[in-house]
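re: ur question from yesterday

yeah so i grabbed the chain u mentioned. its 389 aa long if i counted rite. heres the sequnce exactly as i have it in my notes:
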Amino acid sequence: MWIRRLTLTQFRNYRQQELLLPQGLVLLLGDNAQGKSNLLEAIFLLATTRSERAQTDGELIHWDALAEAQPVARVSAQVERRDGPLELEVIVVGRPGAGGAGRVLASKRLRVNGVARRQADVVGQLTAVLFSTGDLELIGGAPAERRRFLDVTLSQLDPAYLRALQRYGKVVAQRNALLRRIQEGAADADELAFWDGELARDGALLVCQRAAAVDALAEYVREAHRRLSGGLEELAVAYQPRLEGWDGARAGAQTKALAAALHQALTAGRRRDIAAGMTLSGPHRDDLLFTLDGVAAASFASRGQQRTAALALRLAEARFMTDRKGDLPVVLLDDVLSELDEGRRRAVLESLGEWDQLLITSTDADRFDGGPPAAAAMFRVVAGQIEPA
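ran it thru and got these structure tokens back, copy pasting raw so excuse formatting
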């Protein structure tokens, strides 16, 4: 799978840019704050319909466009896949002044081959893996970062997972609102029964798929980290659901049995949930545990070790997606070489030929030992303009 043509209109710091991309390795060179990361963000937006960097969709619209009556940003691409080519487009439509304090509220419109589609029908048409400087949070940050990693990966692979995730989020919000009303004496605890059933049904599907994914990812993570570290350390990953009595054996349990277990946990924890005013059991509380040689990486790994672990996780994600989807994902590495030692840089560079298309950003071509690979296509990024280097 690879992107043949990428077009950006009023996106971030790009006013108008059309870029023809080849297969293989693509290097995006330029100083900081010129638009290299924005380009990778645009590709990831096409794959997932969401930005990993923006807090609101309005941030994706070029500042100059906000003065227009209808500010709009567009990202589109022609994608070559094993099943044939397709056109993807994400349109971000802003409403000036609606956000207050300089913020712009916006909504997205999605199209596949020119036809309007829902999110669940667009996510996964293009699969992509993005490594960014913020990925250190996957190892040492809050559990929400690790849950997001699982959700974004699995949503690209299975529309049913994405739909269950969307339903589950709405149910949790409804149940939490009811818990607060019960606290205030405005509702009865018996009203939780309906929401417990809904939450248990979709939550069980999420837990089952996450557990199976982590089981598969674990071996890829171990192998990728072994290559990056020269075999000096072993990285392991384990799934940790917020479910009473969970053990590794339950990872292979049927969805129906997990739904029953989750429903029981919700029922048993009602008094605690009412006191807290929020739902304290379920996959929205799950986590991943990373260990280096059996020691928790979040607590004891150095910054360099955490960066290597995060990169190993992303490379493992790409392998996992390939096995599940049958198409190699587009791999996006944002400033991947900046904090790696010589041995780990070499291990990264040795893997470059494994992907249909791999885009790497860097401030300097000299970061590549011995210079950039001869087969690489190089582009220079300067103030939102991209030219062949």
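noticed a couple things. DSSP finds eleven helices and 15 strands in the chain. also Residues 192-229 form the longest helix (38 residues).
anyway ttyl
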